[in-house]
Amino acid sequence: NYIRDTITFYHLNQVNFNVSGGYNYLNSTYYDVTTGLRITPSEVFSTSINTGWSIEQQRYLDLNISATVKPWHKFYNTASLSYDMNIGVLRSANSMIDLEIGDTWDDRWHFKLGHSYDFALDRYMLRDLAIIKDLHCWEAIFTYNDWRKEFRFGMSLKAFPSFPIGYVSSDSGNYFDGFMNNLSFEQASPQR
């Protein structure tokens, strides 16, 4: 029904360049031709550049550039931006800072800070904040999301991290979150 392929060129594990594209025979459309370049000169620094061409829409895809600096195994900073090459406008600029402190469970804290550039206000703003505390078999997490104007507090067992129990406070109200959302009943209860 379709043909799609990617060709990738490598130089050791430091440079990776790929081009992909294809054709869908069912609806007679071409897939976008995309290109990507990833350069990792060391374990401390890496960067990637991705873009492409939409054959169907006859326009460039956004140019996405990101760079990550990881000077220490418990700290990294990633910055990225997206640029519309068709009209020459910077669409977004973001960064993520990730820091973990403490070597044992009782003194381990994990902090994540997400920033973005607000084009309307013409300033760089903190958008996401997460503080995670290791509680041995449990993990407590506190988050704030500026887009949603929402605070969340949650707890999860490390053995079952996809089943958290939490509390949310936002503009839409306060509620408990997580437990009922994650329940799934794939089969009926056994007959008794």
Number of helices: 0
Helices and strands, in order, run as EEEEEEEEEEEEE
Rg from alpha-carbon coordinates: 22 Å
Please describe the biggest sheet, giving its number of strands, its sense, and whether it closes into a barrel.
13 strands, antiparallel
How does this model look, in words?
With 192 residues, the protein is mostly beta strands. It has strands at residues 2-11, 15-24, 29-39, 45-54, 59-72, 75-84, 89-101, 109-118, 123-135, 138-145, 150-157, 165-170, 173-177. It is 0% helix and 67% strand. A hairpin with a 2-residue loop joins strand 12 and strand 13. It has no helices and 13 strands. The chain has a 13-stranded antiparallel sheet, with no helix packed on it.
Q: Descriptors for this entry?
A:
disordered C terminus; 0% helix; globular; 13-stranded antiparallel beta sheet; 192 residues; single chain
Quick structural summary:
Helix content is 0%, strand content 67%. It is built from no helices and 13 strands.
Task: Tell me the layout of helices and strands.
Elements lengths: L1 E10 L3 E10 L4 E11 L5 E10 L4 E14 L2 E10 L4 E13 L7 E10 L4 E13 L2 E8 L4 E8 L7 E6 L2 E5 L15
